[in-house]
Write a structure and sequence with these properties.
The structure holds 2 protein chains of 2 kinds. Chain A is mostly helical. Chain A has 7 helices and no strands. The longest helix of chain A has 41 residues. In chain B, 70% of the residues lie in helices and 0% in strands. In chain B, α1 packs antiparallel against α3, α3 packs across α4 and α4 packs antiparallel against α5. Classes of the chains: A mainly alpha, B mainly alpha. At the A-B interface, α4 and α5 of A face α1 and α3 of B.
């Protein structure tokens, strides 16, 4: 049986030296050997030019390969935008988990920043005017760490609840519209004040429903 | 080795804040709901048992009070940890201009130190070292898991008849 890939020792020893015994010299510089150019294929590239880096210039590859623009995160398959009907606003989203993470993150950071700024001012105001810097710093830090997390936590809780209910309604009705948003806002507001009694629940639900409606109108109008 | 399963860097901080906060709130709701339920007294009276067997005495109100007061705090702690970690991670990526397992370890070190800063230098140092070691363990376990998972698809030398390798 003849082994097609040149396995046995006899084959390699008889075939490998064959190019060396021919008259064609294996040199890179071909200028002096133009006389016997008929023996060598004229268009064959020499070894150094073939392996040089410009052979792999991506701009010379097929344009449809798109290798010259690098890897773009938005081209990846996982980053397909949500195809839920009616959910196309001016904010791109890949689904309810995106809404949840970015919504609660924005609200939490915004609440933290607002509450922190209020606490900063409060701490400066509460400390005596002639207090040393260390006391002032401590007063400011105390006020910031009291006000900031409280407002941030409340805002983040509201955003989580709103986005969870909104995602549930979207999944249940298989499309998105302003009614889903407003309903999620009303339920969120009612839940937020659910231990305070009927009247605060109604006020809070109405406020959150209005806010959700305004937000829904803004995202779809822009 | 860039990680393309996450969003690009400045915006991913918002995502991490929100994701960590949500995880903390949901986990804190479960945790403190059970804890508040168990810590509250159950005064079993006959009409209550007859009305609803699974809500006993002060247990329902105790669970709700614990969730209301504690779950947002747990969420805030998780969220601030995750967000500060993400901020440090992005900053270290920007400075080093490469992505390897040392980024999260350094970011964890900085996060632990920054969040414990008000406890004094010693507290901050210990917390930073603890967080760095924790992140190093996470990264090591992650690398071990990925290499274990990719072992099944490792290229293998085909078993040739007679033991002759290809292109000898």
């Amino acid at each position: 049986m003849v082994w097609p890939f040149g396995g046995s020792k006899n084959d390699t020893e008889s075939s490998a030296p064959a190019p060396v015994t021919s008259n064609e010299p294996l040199v890179v510089d071909r200028a002096p050997t133009t006389s016997d150019s008929s023996a060598a294929p004229s268009g064959s590239p020499e070894l150094p030019t073939f392996l040089s880096s410009e052979a792999f210039d991506v701009s010379k590859l097929h344009p449809l390969a798109g290798l010259d623009k690098g890897l773009e995160a938005l081209d990846l398959e996982d980053d397909a935008l949500s195809d839920l009907p009616g959910s196309k606003g001016f904010l791109p989203s890949r689904g309810w988990s995106d809404d949840l993470c970015y919504g609660s993150g924005t609200m939490y950071m915004g609440g933290l920043a607002l509450g922190g700024a209020y606490g900063f001012a409060e701490g400066l105001r509460q400390s005596p005017a002639n207090a040393p810097a260390k006391l002032k710093l401590n007063s400011v830090l105390n006020a910031v760490t009291r006000r900031g997390p409280y407002l941030g936590n409340s805002a983040g809780i509201l955003a989580i609840s709103y986005n969870v209910f909104n995602g549930l309604f979207d999944a249940y009705r298989s499309y998105h519209d302003a009614y889903n948003s407003v309903g999620a806002g009303i339920i969120t507001g009612i839940l937020f004040r659910s231990t305070k009694g009927i009247k605060p629940m109604a006020i809070s639900g109405a406020l959150m429903g209005t806010a959700a409606g305004v937000w829904s109108y803004l995202t779809s109008a822009i | 080795m860039a990680d393309h399963t996450r969003d690009p860097c400045p915006i991913v901080i918002v995502n991490d804040f929100g994701g960590a906060f949500s995880m903390g709130v949901i986990g804190g709701t479960i945790w403190h709901g059970i804890k508040g339920f168990r810590n509250s007294p159950s005064q079993l009276t006959l009409p209550e048992i007859a009305n609803c067997a699974f809500i006993q005495g002060e247990r329902r109100s105790g669970a709700i009070a614990a969730i209301r007061s504690r779950a947002p705090v747990v969420g805030g702690n998780f969220g601030s940890w995750g967000g500060v970690f993400s901020i440090f991670d992005c900053a270290i990526k920007g400075i080093r201009r490469k992505e390897d397992p040392f980024n999260p370890i350094l970011a964890g070190f900085c996060t632990g130190g920054a969040l414990a800063m008000r406890g004094g230098f010693k507290h901050a140092r210990n917390s930073a070292i603890t967080c760095g070691c924790l992140l190093a363990v996470f990264e090591g376990v992650g690398i071990a898991m990925s290499s274990y998972m990719s072992r099944a698809s490792k290229p293998q030398l085909p078993d040739m008849e007679g033991g002759v390798p290809l292109a000898a």
